[in-house]
């Protein structure tokens, strides 16, 4: 069940406090940012997830409650406690999340009123929660998958937010995934870790890793399947559903990057390792010069090869084949003759695809990002004012 | 002696081919980009510097001669040979440098005519060479220092270019330093390596490490001093002069970053190591979000602490004191009450200073960068067209 209400943390007057709640107990796995600066909610939530049984999430947007000292930690615990009392569950069953401006304390009276209001509006489905966690996001980000597991229909749903300060590392921007599958604890953790690595950790908007990044996967077992382990015959079906939902959310975050006008997908094939392929793809998708060229619809492939070159991955540029959409532009260390207008045209749509094939092995990886526009500068030159 | 002429490589009609020449033989040290993609001129110049005695530089702007395959390598050798014949010196005494668009072959007839024209215009001093290596640069970058060594006056001069694709790693953008000091070979190499690390490797404009980065230090001994070694009593004076010239050039590159309206200097003090301090300072100065906030004159210190947090350096955010100019904004893990308008005002000038003090040790480092403006996006959305 989910709800989102307006409690007045964001100046805009929109929804800014959300509640997720499972009436059944859950196994819950989480991953958090690797930033040395960690928002207060992450400290509190990590404790809850480690002690087990998290089945509710209370989240606000507008203020991140990060770099707020001991007072901020106390606010996060208070937020957890108020939600627990309101839902009549244990404090340790509540995860807390805040996103927005760093270095500002939460207005706890509004948060408290918001939690009580949200608890009264809990419904199955609806986009209230997804709306309530948006900051500079322009679109709600939700995804769902349904699969058969042991003769039972299992649903995996998720919602995420993220538009700026997006360069997840281990954790991610906020992503809340829930499933009615029964899943054993270790299996759930392992699944979320691997899926995060392949989806949320493969997107970048601006190279800035947030102190508030967090991804949560809750499983309440309502589907009635035999609890899944890594060895279950049906496990790949479940893992694939989770990865599919996470990938869709990750792409939605990249597409909705601050000021972005298009989604950029970079595919690296023929690499020696998936790790190397991912590092190459992320280096390209994170290059300001590549991003500005995509914005300007200029198929400046030299910048792509350059960004691969400084990725830190060992490879031979002479062995690289490079495409913009279907147009081959570079091979064997030198340009492939092509119509520049045709290559530029591959950058004109909503989705841009750049593919690099190395002659080093059989591994591949995909990374997602967006273009760099005037609008990104406008948004971030005046975010607080 | 130096010269710069217009030979028609750049469409603009400005100076685009330069020649540097020492009538006396030189010891020469060089550092090059760590990008896996290396421009053809770097391959040729590395060979010349390793064989010893480089005393001339031929450089063009407009085309980088990178990612141009074997044909590009042959062009770079031809450029070296034509300069050597024109100056009547050995081909191995000529360093070659090209900067501009990647993936395009040089028009060798124009280059050849340009070299001959430049050789006829060689003069002591003058900014013709410095102008000829500019691309999106808006200002000529030169610096000079004079010091006494063993009773002789020694001059260290330098010129550099760089505006976009600036995130030097080991090498730098183009920087050509020359001195009339006599310096032993090992001492010269050691000096350039250390100085580069502390100056050119401490600037960033956009996080993109170019395949054409190169720094050269030529010493022809005309001052008549006893050749310097690392053990010479006067060596620190010489090293200080070289570092001062390099620092001034590095700051000029950062200040002239593509679209930049101000120079950003980030000082990290009280760190456990200089390497750690430098990584923290570079992480802050390289953050798109910090850069956009500086552009918008928004003293958004949360973004500074966040960028320190994802630098990869181990430190405790609770021990950080942070200042915008003279205004302390963060201490002990939480905000220091201050007038926001005063903090914002520290971002309004030509030069912005952000200082972070860690309680970890006695090491410090400085890094330089610039703000991120609409103009950066405009320049890089339409560079080739």
How are the secondary structure elements laid out?
Two copies of one chain form a homodimer.
Chain A: E1 2-5, E2 17-21, E3 27-32, H1 40-51, E4 56-63, H2 69-87, E5 94-101, H3 108-119, H4 128-132, E6 141-149, E7 152-160, E8 174-179, H5 185-198, E9 214-219, H6 235-255, E10 263-271, H7 274-286, H8 288-295, H9 301-309, E11 321-324, E12 327-331, E13 334-335, H10 340-345, E14 351-357, E15 363-370, H11 374-381
Parallel strand pairs in A: 4-5, 8-9, 10-14
Antiparallel strand pairs in A: 1-2, 2-4, 3-9, 6-7, 7-8, 10-15, 11-12, 11-14, 12-13
Helix pairs in contact in A: 1-2, 2-3, 5-6, 7-9
Key descriptive features of the protein:
homodimer; 385 residues; alpha+beta; six-stranded mixed sheet; five-stranded mixed sheet; 11 helices; globular
